[in-house]
What we know:
It is a single chain. The protein is an alpha/beta fold. The chain has helices at residues 4-13, 15-24, 64-73, 77-94, 112-115, 119-131, 144-149, 151-161, 180-186, 195-198, 205-221, 233-242; strands spanning 28-34, 36-37, 47-55, 61-62, 105-110, 138-143, 167-173, 190-193, 224-227, 246-247, 256-257. Strands 1, 2, 3, 4, 5, 6, 7, 8, 9, 10 and 11 form an 11-stranded mixed beta sheet that branches. Residues 1-6 and 8-13 have low confidence and may be disordered.
Amino acid sequence: MIAPLMQKELERNGTADRLLQVLKENKFVLYCQAIRPLAPACHASPYQEIFVRFVEEDQKLLPPGTFIPVLEHYELMAVLDRWVVNRVIGWLRGRGGWEKDRDPRCSINLSGESVQNVELARFIQRQLEACRVPPAALSFEIAEADFVEHVGAVADIISMLGPLGCGFALSGYSGAIIPCGTLKEIGFDAVKIDGDIIQRIHRDRFSLALAKMIIDRCRELGMFSVGECVENPEILETLRALRADYAQGFGIERPGPLEKA
Protein backbone atom coordinates (compact mmCIF):
# COMPACT_ATOMS: atom_id res chain seq x y z
CA MET A 1 0.00 0.00 0.00
CA ILE A 2 1.22 3.52 -0.84
CA ALA A 3 1.56 5.88 2.13
CA PRO A 4 -1.16 8.63 2.10
CA LEU A 5 1.36 11.46 1.83
CA MET A 6 3.09 9.75 -1.08
CA GLN A 7 -0.28 9.08 -2.77
CA LYS A 8 -1.33 12.74 -2.54
CA GLU A 9 2.02 13.86 -3.89
CA LEU A 10 1.75 11.48 -6.83
CA GLU A 11 -1.81 12.46 -7.68
CA ARG A 12 -0.97 16.17 -7.55
CA ASN A 13 2.17 16.15 -9.66
CA GLY A 14 1.96 13.14 -11.96
CA THR A 15 3.45 9.88 -10.83
CA ALA A 16 6.30 9.02 -13.18
CA ASP A 17 7.48 12.58 -13.73
CA ARG A 18 7.39 13.31 -9.99
CA LEU A 19 9.49 10.28 -9.09
CA LEU A 20 12.06 11.15 -11.72
CA GLN A 21 12.20 14.68 -10.34
CA VAL A 22 12.70 13.26 -6.84
CA LEU A 23 15.78 11.46 -8.09
CA LYS A 24 17.15 14.63 -9.67
CA GLU A 25 16.56 16.55 -6.44
CA ASN A 26 18.31 13.85 -4.38
CA LYS A 27 15.30 13.32 -2.13
CA PHE A 28 16.24 9.68 -2.00
CA VAL A 29 19.04 9.06 0.48
CA LEU A 30 21.28 6.08 1.11
CA TYR A 31 21.54 4.14 4.35
CA CYS A 32 23.83 1.24 5.15
CA GLN A 33 23.86 -1.71 7.55
CA ALA A 34 26.90 -3.72 8.56
CA ILE A 35 27.19 -7.38 7.58
CA ARG A 36 29.46 -8.60 10.36
CA PRO A 37 31.98 -11.44 10.16
CA LEU A 38 31.35 -14.07 12.82
CA ALA A 39 34.90 -15.29 13.31
CA PRO A 40 38.36 -13.83 12.72
CA ALA A 41 39.44 -14.92 9.26
CA CYS A 42 41.52 -13.54 6.43
CA HIS A 43 38.54 -13.55 4.08
CA ALA A 44 36.20 -11.69 6.44
CA SER A 45 36.61 -8.17 5.06
CA PRO A 46 34.35 -5.21 6.02
CA TYR A 47 30.99 -5.53 4.29
CA GLN A 48 27.74 -3.50 4.31
CA GLU A 49 24.38 -3.50 2.54
CA ILE A 50 23.03 -0.32 0.96
CA PHE A 51 19.40 0.75 1.47
CA VAL A 52 17.33 3.54 -0.08
CA ARG A 53 15.05 5.90 1.85
CA PHE A 54 12.75 8.70 0.64
CA VAL A 55 12.89 12.11 2.32
CA GLU A 56 9.58 13.96 2.63
CA GLU A 57 9.23 17.73 2.85
CA ASP A 58 9.36 17.62 6.66
CA GLN A 59 12.57 15.57 6.50
CA LYS A 60 10.69 12.45 7.56
CA LEU A 61 12.13 9.24 6.11
CA LEU A 62 9.78 6.84 4.37
CA PRO A 63 10.70 3.13 4.23
CA PRO A 64 11.00 1.30 0.88
CA GLY A 65 7.57 -0.33 1.22
CA THR A 66 5.93 3.04 0.66
CA PHE A 67 7.61 3.96 -2.64
CA ILE A 68 9.14 0.80 -4.15
CA PRO A 69 5.70 -0.51 -5.28
CA VAL A 70 5.12 2.77 -7.12
CA LEU A 71 8.48 2.57 -8.87
CA GLU A 72 7.82 -1.05 -9.81
CA HIS A 73 4.38 -0.21 -11.20
CA TYR A 74 5.78 2.51 -13.46
CA GLU A 75 8.89 0.46 -14.36
CA LEU A 76 11.27 2.95 -12.80
CA MET A 77 13.25 0.56 -10.60
CA ALA A 78 16.10 0.39 -13.11
CA VAL A 79 16.38 4.18 -12.95
CA LEU A 80 16.60 4.04 -9.15
CA ASP A 81 19.17 1.22 -9.29
CA ARG A 82 21.42 3.28 -11.55
CA TRP A 83 21.06 6.26 -9.24
CA VAL A 84 22.11 4.09 -6.29
CA VAL A 85 25.11 2.68 -8.16
CA ASN A 86 26.21 6.16 -9.18
CA ARG A 87 25.88 7.54 -5.64
CA VAL A 88 27.67 4.61 -3.99
CA ILE A 89 30.58 4.78 -6.44
CA GLY A 90 30.78 8.53 -5.83
CA TRP A 91 30.85 7.92 -2.06
CA LEU A 92 33.64 5.37 -2.45
CA ARG A 93 35.66 7.76 -4.60
CA GLY A 94 35.17 10.51 -2.05
CA ARG A 95 36.79 8.36 0.64
CA GLY A 96 40.10 8.76 -1.17
CA GLY A 97 40.41 5.27 -2.57
CA TRP A 98 39.32 1.82 -1.47
CA GLU A 99 41.37 -0.87 0.24
CA LYS A 100 40.04 -4.39 0.82
CA ASP A 101 40.99 -4.82 4.47
CA ARG A 102 40.23 -1.22 5.47
CA ASP A 103 37.10 -0.10 3.67
CA PRO A 104 33.68 -1.76 3.50
CA ARG A 105 32.56 -3.55 0.39
CA CYS A 106 29.18 -2.08 -0.55
CA SER A 107 26.41 -4.53 -1.40
CA ILE A 108 23.75 -3.04 -3.71
CA ASN A 109 20.38 -4.66 -4.37
CA LEU A 110 19.45 -5.06 -8.03
CA SER A 111 15.77 -5.18 -8.96
CA GLY A 112 14.17 -7.73 -11.25
CA GLU A 113 13.80 -4.97 -13.83
CA SER A 114 17.54 -4.22 -13.76
CA VAL A 115 18.81 -7.78 -14.04
CA GLN A 116 16.91 -8.25 -17.30
CA ASN A 117 19.06 -5.69 -19.10
CA VAL A 118 22.75 -6.35 -19.71
CA GLU A 119 23.20 -2.62 -20.36
CA LEU A 120 23.23 -2.24 -16.59
CA ALA A 121 26.52 -4.13 -16.45
CA ARG A 122 28.02 -1.81 -19.07
CA PHE A 123 26.81 1.21 -17.08
CA ILE A 124 28.47 -0.12 -13.92
CA GLN A 125 31.70 -0.77 -15.80
CA ARG A 126 31.75 2.79 -17.16
CA GLN A 127 31.08 4.31 -13.73
CA LEU A 128 33.82 2.28 -12.05
CA GLU A 129 36.33 3.22 -14.74
CA ALA A 130 35.38 6.91 -14.74
CA CYS A 131 35.68 7.20 -10.95
CA ARG A 132 38.68 4.85 -10.68
CA VAL A 133 36.98 2.72 -8.04
CA PRO A 134 38.13 -0.93 -7.84
CA PRO A 135 35.34 -3.33 -8.91
CA ALA A 136 36.02 -5.37 -5.75
CA ALA A 137 34.53 -2.48 -3.76
CA LEU A 138 31.07 -3.47 -4.98
CA SER A 139 28.87 -6.50 -4.46
CA PHE A 140 25.39 -6.97 -5.88
CA GLU A 141 22.45 -8.76 -4.32
CA ILE A 142 19.83 -10.51 -6.44
CA ALA A 143 16.67 -11.92 -4.88
CA GLU A 144 16.07 -15.63 -5.29
CA ALA A 145 12.74 -15.05 -7.06
CA ASP A 146 14.31 -12.64 -9.58
CA PHE A 147 17.13 -15.09 -10.27
CA VAL A 148 14.72 -17.95 -10.92
CA GLU A 149 12.67 -15.80 -13.32
CA HIS A 150 15.65 -14.30 -15.19
CA VAL A 151 18.43 -16.85 -14.77
CA GLY A 152 19.93 -16.30 -18.23
CA ALA A 153 20.06 -12.52 -17.90
CA VAL A 154 21.55 -12.76 -14.41
CA ALA A 155 24.24 -15.12 -15.70
CA ASP A 156 25.11 -12.61 -18.43
CA ILE A 157 25.53 -9.76 -15.93
CA ILE A 158 27.67 -11.88 -13.62
CA SER A 159 29.83 -13.02 -16.54
CA MET A 160 30.61 -9.36 -17.33
CA LEU A 161 31.16 -7.98 -13.82
CA GLY A 162 32.34 -11.02 -11.87
CA PRO A 163 35.71 -11.39 -13.67
CA LEU A 164 36.41 -7.71 -12.93
CA GLY A 165 36.17 -8.38 -9.19
CA CYS A 166 32.57 -7.47 -8.32
CA GLY A 167 30.85 -9.83 -5.89
CA PHE A 168 27.39 -11.37 -6.23
CA ALA A 169 25.09 -12.69 -3.50
CA LEU A 170 21.74 -14.43 -3.79
CA SER A 171 19.43 -13.00 -1.13
CA GLY A 172 16.49 -14.74 0.49
CA TYR A 173 18.06 -18.12 -0.24
CA SER A 174 15.88 -21.03 0.90
CA GLY A 175 17.92 -23.92 -0.43
CA ALA A 176 14.74 -25.49 -1.83
CA ILE A 177 14.79 -24.29 -5.44
CA ILE A 178 18.39 -23.80 -6.56
CA PRO A 179 21.36 -25.95 -5.50
CA CYS A 180 24.37 -24.07 -4.14
CA GLY A 181 26.48 -25.78 -6.80
CA THR A 182 24.46 -24.12 -9.56
CA LEU A 183 24.96 -20.71 -7.96
CA LYS A 184 28.70 -21.31 -7.74
CA GLU A 185 28.88 -22.32 -11.41
CA ILE A 186 27.08 -19.15 -12.48
CA GLY A 187 29.43 -16.98 -10.44
CA PHE A 188 27.75 -16.16 -7.13
CA ASP A 189 30.24 -15.95 -4.27
CA ALA A 190 27.74 -15.66 -1.40
CA VAL A 191 24.26 -16.67 -0.32
CA LYS A 192 22.14 -14.80 2.21
CA ILE A 193 19.99 -17.36 3.97
CA ASP A 194 16.32 -16.40 4.03
CA GLY A 195 15.31 -14.43 7.12
CA ASP A 196 12.34 -16.69 7.88
CA ILE A 197 14.77 -19.59 8.29
CA ILE A 198 17.26 -17.60 10.35
CA GLN A 199 14.65 -16.27 12.76
CA ARG A 200 13.71 -19.84 13.74
CA ILE A 201 17.10 -21.57 13.94
CA HIS A 202 17.37 -21.24 17.72
CA ARG A 203 13.96 -22.85 18.38
CA ASP A 204 13.08 -25.04 15.40
CA ARG A 205 15.04 -28.18 14.55
CA PHE A 206 14.05 -28.21 10.87
CA SER A 207 15.19 -24.61 10.34
CA LEU A 208 18.42 -25.36 12.20
CA ALA A 209 19.12 -28.39 10.02
CA LEU A 210 18.33 -26.45 6.83
CA ALA A 211 20.62 -23.57 7.79
CA LYS A 212 23.40 -26.00 8.69
CA MET A 213 23.05 -27.76 5.33
CA ILE A 214 23.32 -24.46 3.43
CA ILE A 215 26.26 -23.20 5.49
CA ASP A 216 28.17 -26.49 5.19
CA ARG A 217 27.58 -26.65 1.44
CA CYS A 218 28.73 -23.06 0.98
CA ARG A 219 31.92 -23.83 2.86
CA GLU A 220 32.58 -26.88 0.65
CA LEU A 221 32.16 -24.75 -2.47
CA GLY A 222 34.20 -21.78 -1.22
CA MET A 223 31.16 -19.47 -0.99
CA PHE A 224 30.29 -17.11 1.86
CA SER A 225 27.18 -17.72 3.95
CA VAL A 226 25.27 -14.82 5.49
CA GLY A 227 22.49 -15.03 8.06
CA GLU A 228 19.85 -12.36 7.40
CA CYS A 229 17.42 -10.88 9.94
CA VAL A 230 19.47 -11.60 13.06
CA GLU A 231 17.38 -10.01 15.79
CA ASN A 232 18.65 -11.42 19.09
CA PRO A 233 21.75 -12.92 20.78
CA GLU A 234 20.33 -16.46 20.61
CA ILE A 235 20.17 -16.39 16.81
CA LEU A 236 23.64 -14.87 16.61
CA GLU A 237 25.19 -17.53 18.84
CA THR A 238 23.48 -20.30 16.87
CA LEU A 239 24.92 -18.91 13.63
CA ARG A 240 28.37 -18.83 15.21
CA ALA A 241 27.97 -22.46 16.28
CA LEU A 242 27.01 -23.36 12.70
CA ARG A 243 30.14 -21.55 11.47
CA ALA A 244 28.33 -19.11 9.20
CA ASP A 245 30.63 -16.48 7.74
CA TYR A 246 28.54 -13.34 8.31
CA ALA A 247 25.43 -12.11 10.10
CA GLN A 248 23.19 -9.11 9.51
CA GLY A 249 20.15 -7.67 11.23
CA PHE A 250 18.76 -5.22 13.79
CA GLY A 251 20.22 -7.36 16.56
CA ILE A 252 23.67 -6.44 15.28
CA GLU A 253 23.28 -2.92 13.88
CA ARG A 254 20.40 -0.72 12.75
CA PRO A 255 20.80 0.99 9.35
CA GLY A 256 22.33 4.46 9.43
CA PRO A 257 23.15 7.18 6.87
CA LEU A 258 25.85 6.11 4.43
CA GLU A 259 27.43 9.56 4.54
CA LYS A 260 28.23 9.02 8.23
CA ALA A 261 29.66 5.53 7.83
